[in-house]
Structures are given as structure tokens and as C-alpha cells.
Amino acid sequence: MKKSIDILHEYWGHKTFRPMQESIINAVLEKNDVLALLPTGGGKSICFQVPAMMMDSICIVISPLIALMKDQIENLSKKGIPALAIYSGMSFLEIKRTLQNAAYGNYKFLYISPERLETKLFQEFLPAINPSLIAIDEAHCISQWGYDFRPSYLKIAALREEIPEVPVIALTASATLTVQNDICEKLLFKKQHKKFQQSFSRPNLSYSVFEPESKQNKLTEIIKQVAGSSIVYCKSRKLTQQISDLLIQHNIHADFYHAGLSNIDRAKKQDDWINNKIQTIVCTNAFGMGIDKPDVRLVVHYNIPETLENYYQEAGRAGRDGKKSYAVLLYDKNEINELDELNELRYPGAEKIKTIYLSLMNHLKIPAGIGEGQMLNFDLAAFAHYFKLNTLEATYGIQALCQEGLVYLTDNALRNATVTFSVNKQVLSDFEKTHPEFETLINALLRSYEGIFDYPVNIHESLLAKNISTPIEKIKEQLSLLHNHQIIDYIKQSEKPQILLLKNRMYTDDFRFDYRSLELRKKQHLERIKAMIGYIKNSNNCRSVIIGNYFNDNEIEVCKFCDNCINSNQHETTEKEFSSIAQKILNDLKVQALNSKKVETIYKDYHPASIWKVIHFLQAEEKILCDNDGFFYLN
Predict the structure, then answer these.
(1) CA distance 104 to 57
(2) How far apart are CA 629 and CA 598, in angstroms?
(3) CB neighbour class for 191 (10 Å; exposed up to 12, middle 13-18, buried from 19)
(4) Where does 575-634 sit in CATH, by number?
(5) At what angle do helices 308-315 and 515-537 cross, to 10 degrees?
(6) Does CATH place domain 339-413+497-525 in 1.10.10.10?
(7) Domain 4-197 shares a fold with domain 205-331+538-559
(8) How remote is the C-alpha of 547 from its chain's centroid?
(9) Number of helices (H), then strands (E), in the chain
(10) Are 137 and 64 in contact, with CB atoms under 8 Å apart?
């Protein structure tokens, strides 16, 4: 059998593992249950994908986001590794075909959303699928004490009871000690399970917090100081466009991104940023999950994130290539007060939850006593407007219903169009004779999609258009006409969010909800808000150490170049020392560009805090710049 390093090199092209990956893989191969805490960009997927390639049968991967599943499947396909996915919004026939392929085909990975685990169809196929490994991505979602609790994850325990001998690897980038213990308990980990926690230190990432008089001026100043790719996170969709327009006015090549855009627009903006056609993407936290761009030099939070978990994950998208990068948080005092208010809004009271539930059922036109299993398109803005709800109020109310296991709101990842022929081959042949204008498209469908007479198949109108040299608008028009002629059943591409009803609608007088758990989660969330505010207000301790300690990493070392380390009273930089370092740096940069490692080596006679204090000053004065590769050079 090939060794894990051989698999890594053959499919991923790497000659060495990142820290801790090989130990995790070995623990999985020894059939241990494993909890792996690896920071954002730490290579979590390698930890289950490599051992799965060394095992006999398929690996089931449980993931919460459709977009994330699709990204991983696409990446695996590019490596020649066959993978499948089952998620909300697929038809019964699509799901059945996928499960048949998982059970009897030559596939190595089956990605599945957690709410699909307890369906009768999945249960029927599970013995034939016979997985060799279960991988749980975003494992913190199983803990109600986590920052992103999803009750559908609790269904995983039932899967474990069905196949107790199959090892489980749970992966997350951020979990406190309480959440770590809860993950192991909820997943029924065996006593001899293994836990791996990589250091939360990011030695190439400089953290800073500013309370500027003008956020807009500070933002443009920072982006102009740091050359290369950057992300700016904002709290609202409207603000992403406003900030993007502002940056463009300052000759910064920027664009905006949020979940309210069409999938086509989002895909284009994402691709333009990944391929460096634009420098800065201004976005909500809908952006970034599953995106593998190692050369991001700067992440700016224009508003305060709700939790350190969110902040660490989003800031960690900078500098995954190990080169010098920056994570900057901008804030004002009003935002701190708003965080406390948001906690009240995020966890609605009993009457508000009941009102939102009844309004939602009425909006979806679901009578009492029925509805379980129905999947319906859902427009949150229209719902909030019609029932005179604040959009955030509606969002958090529905989120509470999701966490109670009453409904499930899908992320609005694109659902492909599907086609199946509604007639037999003889009728189709007769139709082509009387309607020759459809012959080219019909033949293209028959050539491209096996099984199209038996079940709905996913089609790509753009690929069909390319194959038969026809405009995509014409393809869509002809497909619709064939549907109208009842030759095919054509379900158009959908990009709307959908709500899956997990239980029948309750009668008004029999409404049941676990308010006690909601109150406990509210208290936990308030503690997370306090930790976030504590991080912002702390001007004494190393920011890397603050973050590491929060996640139970008590061996993390002082970083030396966050704003607090640079401003630390542990070392006072004299005016003479400051001038000496500045002049030496400017002189040396006339000869060659320098990266962070060379800087600390060349100027080892000076205190690191003094060196970085000078470098940050020279950047602020625009005397030096930092390029895409983390090298400093004269402006």
C-alpha cells in the first residue's frame, strides 16, 4: 500500500506535510476517533482526504454549507478523485442516483448535509455504502455552546450508533475548551480518542486594532500601504457597496460581494479577485468560506465581529502562504454598545419567536398538522416586509427555529437546472421529424447526459451552448419550448434560498419551544461578546497570545509585531535608536528588498519591537511598501 506521503505528492503535489497533519493521518489510519483543531488555512481537508484515499471504501464527509461541498468536490475532481454530494434541494431521484453511485460506483467521497442523515433513503443505502471513515467538517456546529450551533449536527450520533466500528475525524478551526469537550461527547467518541491542537500562533500575521477619527481615511491609508490582495469585511450588504465605491474613488481596484447578489455575479467577482483582476474585495462574512487563496496580504474588519471565533477565522484568511501579512480591526465606541444590543436581538423572547413561527408558516401557506419534508423557496426580505419585521429580527427568529430543529434554511448556493425526457424514443423521433429546429439540441442532450430518459439529470446550459455553438439565451428558450411541448421536464436553474420543514406545523395552542436552552446560549454568546470587546480594549498584551489563550492554547509565544507588542512598555525605543533603525532600513532598501525574516536577522542587534515600530511608521509615512510576496521596498 502506498504511504500517506506518496498520496500527498501524487494528488496534491506536496512533498511534505504541514505541522501535525501526518500525526493526525496516522491516528485516523489506526482507526482512532480524532478531534483536530487546525487554524484557518492549516490544511484540515488533507487530514481526512489523504487517509480516505488509503482506505478500501468511501469516506462520508458531513458539511454544513452547499457552497463548501461544491468547492471541495470541484477541487477533488480536478485531481482526478471521484466525489459525490447530497444536499437540500435535490430531487428524490437525484438523491437515489447519488446514493446508488456511492454504494456501487468507484467513488472515494460522499459529501452530505447533516439533515439528510436520518432520511429513510439514506438509511436504506448505508449498509451498501459501507463507509471506511466519517469526516465532520466545521465540527463546532454540533455544540450548542459554540458560536454556530446547528441542531442537525446532533443527528450524527445516530449514524455512529448504526456503524460504531467506523472511525470519525472531527475538524474545526476554532473551538474553546468547553466546545471541544462537547464535540467529543456529542459525537460519542471512544475513550481512547485522540485530540490534536495546532498552535493558534500565526507568526507571519500582524494584528492591529485602531479607533480612528475617520474609518474611511484609515482604510484607504492602510490598503495603499500594503500592496497585494486584500479583503475588507463589513457588517451590512449596503456598506460593502459604499466602501467599494469609496476605494474606487481613491484609485484602488475594488469590488463588493454579499449573499444578496446572483450566483453568477458572486462567482465572477470571486474569480476576478482570486485571479488578481481586482485588488480588494469588500464583503460581508458570506465571503471566504472554502476559498483557497494563499497570497492575501491584508484583511481589514471595518466593523467589530461578534466573536473572537469569527474574527480569528476571517482574519486568518491573510497570509496562508506564510509571508508577511496584516489583520486590522477598525472600530468606534458606538459599535461596542451595539454589540450588547445585538445579543438581545439575536436571542428573541418567547412571544417574538412564536409570532415569527406562525408568520413563517402563514407566509409559506402551510396548514396546521402537515408540512414535514416540504422544501419551499424563501425570500427573507419579502417575508420581513410583509409581516412588518426588522430584517435582523426575522433572521435571528428563523435562526432560533432552525436551532430548535423545526426548519432548515439552506444557503443559496446555485442549484443546477435539470432535464428528463417525458416521452419514449419513438415519440421523440416523430417529434424531431415535425420540429427539425430542435434536432441539434435534442441530439446534444442525448450525447451529453446518460440516463436522461430515466431520471432528472443536472445540465449546464452554458456547456450545451458552447458544444453546439448556440447562444445560451437560445438554449434556454428552446428548453422551455420543449418543456411546453411536453417532450422534456425542464426545471430551471434556481439560486433562491429554500426552507426545509423538518416537522409538521404545530397548532397555535400547542406551540412548543425549548426556551431554557435558548437562554443558556444567550448567556454563552454574551460571554463571547465580552471576550471580543476585551480583545479590542486590551492595549497591553500580545494579540496573538490573547487569541491563543481564548482557544486554550496556553503555550503560544509573544508575536513581537502586533500593535500591542510594538507599543509595549517592555522596551522603550529612544529617539536616537529610532532614527538609526529608520536610516539603516532606508539605506539597505536602496540595495535590495527585504522580507520579515531578513529584517530580524540583519537588525538582530536591535529589539524586535523597535524594528517593527519603525517599519510601521515608515509604511504609514508611505516611505516603504510591502509587496505581494511580503517584501518591503522603497516607495
Answers:
(1) 10
(2) 13
(3) exposed
(4) 1.10.10
(5) 60
(6) yes
(7) yes
(8) 20
(9) 26, 22
(10) yes
Q: Whole-angstrom Cα distance, residue 522 to residue 528?
A: 10
Give the CATH fold of the 4-197 domain: Rossmann fold (3.40.50)
On the question of pLDDT at 495 being above 80, the answer is no
User: How do the domains of the chain map onto residue ranges?
Assistant: 4-197, 205-331+538-559, 339-413+497-525, 417-491, 575-634
Distance CA 532, CA 336 (A): 9
What digits encode the pLDDT tens for the residues 420-435?
898 999 999 999 999 9
What is the C-alpha radius of gyration for the chain, rounded to an integer number of angstroms? 27
Contact 41/315 with Cβ under 8 angstroms? no
Q: Is 471 exposed, middle or buried (0-12, 13-18, 19+ CB in 10 A)?
A: exposed
Classify 67 as helix, strand or coil.
helix
Architecture of domain 417-491: Orthogonal Bundle (1.10)
d(C-alpha 534, C-alpha 587), whole Å: 40
Q: Could you read off the pLDDT of 278-316 as tens digits, one per residue?
A: 999 999 987 877 677 889 999 999 999 989 999 998 999
Burial of 343 (0-12, 13-18, 19+ CB in 10 A): middle
pLDDT at 229: 95
Asked if 626 and 225 touch (Cβ cutoff 8 Å), the reply is yes
Residues 374-411: tens digit of each pLDDT: 888 888 889 999 999 988 889 999 999 988 889 988 76
| Secondary structure of 608-627 as H, E, C letters | HHHHHHHHHHHHHCCCEEEC
- Strand, helix or coil at 322? coil
Instruction: Say which residue the cell 457552497 belongs to.
Output: 67
Higher pLDDT, 62 or 19: 62
Where does 205-331+538-559 sit in CATH, by number?
Answer: 3.40.50.300
Alpha helices in 30-65 (DSSP H): 44-53
